[in-house]
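Entry 14. Ran structure prediction on the chain below.
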Amino acid sequence: MTVTSALPLATGTWQVDAAHSSVEFVVRHLGLSKVRGRFNQFDANLDVGADLASSTLAATVDLASVDTNNPDRDAHLRSTDFFDVEQHPTLQFASERIVADGDDYAVDGTMTLNGVARPVRLDVEFNGTEVYPMDSKTHAGFSASTTISRSDYGVEFDVPVGVDRMAIGDKVKVELEIQLVQP
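Output, structure tokens:
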């Protein structure tokens, strides 16, 4: 196994194990509670190079696969008020650099949503590796998060609930639990 100097994984393209991964989000509703959702269809790969400078991460999320456990809300999220999945069916992320941050990592990249590309930093915790007995391959685990403003991506639908408050929070926390499989 060839190990990078700062990323303890074999070189090559590690593919997401979608059955053991999740892409989730959290947003405030009425300022009172957090509403959680997930995307059921996504793909990602980590190209591990000889060092962090030559390693890249790319991901695609199928926005039509949104699931908030409320079919009416999910249909509304797919509409032009939010994701406009007919015009912009995917969210895409492409890393520009991966840097060590103590025992963890930061991944700076560009996220494209609703036709708008903006810089995003993922704060990444490396959870280690393990050989999965079902496929006898090495799997690597990561937890990552970021917070975005949906208005930065042109997603501005909202409902006023008072003089100075809106029903849906602008800040959206994105939470990732990702398992990747060694090439």
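Confidence is low (pLDDT under 50) at residues 1-5. Will compare against last week's run tomorrow.
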